[in-house]
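Researcher: Here's the sequence for the chain we discussed earlier.
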Amino acid sequence: MADTQFPAEAPYDCTGCERLCAFLDAQRVAHPDWFNGPVKSFGDESAQLLIVGLAPGLRGANRTGRPFTGDWAGDLLYPTLGKFGFADGTFDARPDDGLKLVKCMITNAVRCVPPQNKPTTAEIYNCNGYLAARMDALPRLRAVLTLGRIAHDATLVALGYRKSAFKFGHGARHSIDGLEVFNSYHCSRYNTNTRRLTTEMFEAVVADIQGFCSQPVNG
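Model: Thanks. This is the structure I predict for it:
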């Protein structure tokens, strides 16, 4: 699955995408106290579930250094994970809030913040080796939750499939090479404000994942 030239995490001084590097350099000047680098995956190395988001938010993970921390999306994601046993502790939108993930890890299809939260096709491709390596480095991985179509498509490519092989749809579920891939709309502020994604809709997907992960491996 993984390209051996890629580690599971991008180095802080990664120079793979010229546009993203320039954008990060500008943020380091404007906000020297922010993290401003490729955001590492967060969670349990014995994870059964890997959650794949799009990219760090400018004032979220790019500022705090932890996925879905510091912006709106984490306010839905982390409490939901806690409700279904994939997180322990209280989420307080800070990387030092003591929250721990349980048999779960969170990563992004693109590790660096893109301008206007819109990575290019080339940037998604450049970062795909890290996603493939991240999945390959989780020996107990059973399920993947893709948040949005771009994350879903990137996951398919990382697994060696064409984007058209398995169609994204909220609540959809795909069996791919021994993994169960679940789809959800991204828990962004826009999606929740417009009610494209409600708390109930998101919880239903995570409940489905919990049910799957609670089954015996060969069951």
